[in-house]
Every structure is written in structure tokens, then in C-alpha cells.
Amino acid sequence: MAKQIGFNFFFKLNDKLIAGETQSDLSISATEKSSLTKADKGNAQTEISGHEITANVSGAMEVNDSGQTTSLDADALMEQSLKKGEDSVIPFVYTRGDAKAYKGNCVITSYSESSNAEGEATWSLTIKVSGEMTPVTL
């Protein structure tokens, strides 16, 4: 998976590379673990045990081997959204311009679409990272 101008979220779906744009709302929330022992003298001790990472993704396009983008059939996204267990986990890469890129696995936790009278549909995905999100060099 590589950087593509105009997109910052990439994932594999049925052996196809899909590029999308997050809606400027990648969210990283710490998972806290607190404890209170007699030795703490009434002061709770807190540490970070992990992170919950979510983002909204829209405007996905299929990226071919030469880097060209084409429209994506939303049926594949809907089908992925309905999968369960290990089949629901997909690899991704998240980039931010010239900053570091990050990789990991994610699941689609929400799929939304709307269409107009001409049959043109827009859709969005909410994803949640499964496991860790780690830096990667592209």
C-alpha cells in the first residue's frame, strides 16, 4: 500500500486496494487501568493499557496497479460491513501528507449510504482499529 494524492486511508478488500479520505476526525482514546492499594495511601494509580482508535472514511476509490483510481461498487463495502469474526478484519494504512504513515488492522463498525433520484449514492464508513496501529515507511 502506498501514498496516493487526495487520499489518506487505504485498505485491502477482496484483493483490491481501496483508497478513501478520513473526514478529519481520526480519534485515539486511551484505555486506562486504575488501581488503588494500601501502599497508594488513597491516591489511585492510573496507567494506559491500550488505545481505542476510530475514524470515519468516505470517498473510497479502487486503486489499480498503475496507481489510477476508479469508482468503487458500494456492494463490496456493504458486504464487508456485514461480515463477522476473522472475516471482518481488514488491513489498512493511514497517511497524513508528508508525516509518518501507520498500519494495522481494522473492522467496519458502521456503513451508511444515501442516494438521490438519479441513483447516485454517497456512503461513509466508521472503522475501528483492531489491535495496534504502528508506524510504517512507505
What does this structure look like?
- The chain is mostly beta strands.
- Helix content is 6%, strand content 57%.
- It has 1 helix and 8 strands; from the N terminus they run βββββαβββ.
- Strands 1-2-4-8-7-6 form a 6-stranded antiparallel beta barrel.
- The radius of gyration is 18 Å and the shape is elongated.
- The model has no long low-confidence stretch (mean pLDDT 82).
How can the largest sheet be summarized?
6 strands, antiparallel, barrel
* Strand percentage: over 45%
Any idea what the radius of gyration is?
18 Å
Structural class: mainly beta
The helix fraction, in percent, is: under 10%
What's the total number of strands? 8
Taking strands numbered 1, 2, ... along the chain, how are they ordered across the largest sheet?
1-2-4-8-7-6
Termini separation comes to 8 Å
Reading the helices and strands in chain order gives EEEEEHEEE
Average of pLDDT: 82
**Outline, from the CA principal axes?**
elongated
Structural topology:
Blueprint: E1 9-13, E2 16-22, E3 27-35, E4 45-63, E5 69-71, H1 74-81, E6 90-94, E7 101-115, E8 121-136
In short:
This protein is mainly beta and 138 residues long. It is built from 1 helix and 8 strands, in the order βββββαβββ. Strand 7 (101-115) and strand 8 (121-136) form a beta hairpin.
